[in-house]
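Collaborator request, handled under Task 6.
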Amino acid sequence: MKITSLDIHCASELKLLRKSKKMKQIVMAEYLGLTTQQLYSDLENGKKHFTDDIILKICSMFNISILQFVNNDASATNLSIIMGDEDYNAVQSATNDETKTLIFKRLFLETKIENIEAKLKALQKNDIINTAKKAKSKIHVMI
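Structure tokens returned to the collaborator:
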């Protein structure tokens, strides 16, 4: 997969997080399920694509939100604008970190589903999908 500007941003954020906790690359590689330290190094140096799973693991390990990781401007004051008041309040009232992580995972997955739906609508408008054979599909996500 092509390296994006988000991947480069995530790489620099990951490097800062790891160094702030004085962790070795091999420890991070093992936690992220990467087979070698070199694969982790490539990730941290912006040579490898950040998958959703890797981003979730990083955020879980450092106990930060996905928005904080992918958007370095996401301070506590503007998270409510990005997330919406209801979701922001749910995160703020969460009693433990595990609950917060689950809320962020749900928001992340909802965003992914919205992106997929938008792409499907765009495809339908471009007549790539045969209108006579349109099928409804449901996406079930279990957390």
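The cover message to the collaborator said: "The radius of gyration is 18 Å. The domain at 1-62 is CATH 1.10.260.40 (434 Repressor (Amino-terminal Domain)). Please let us know whether this matches your experimental observations."
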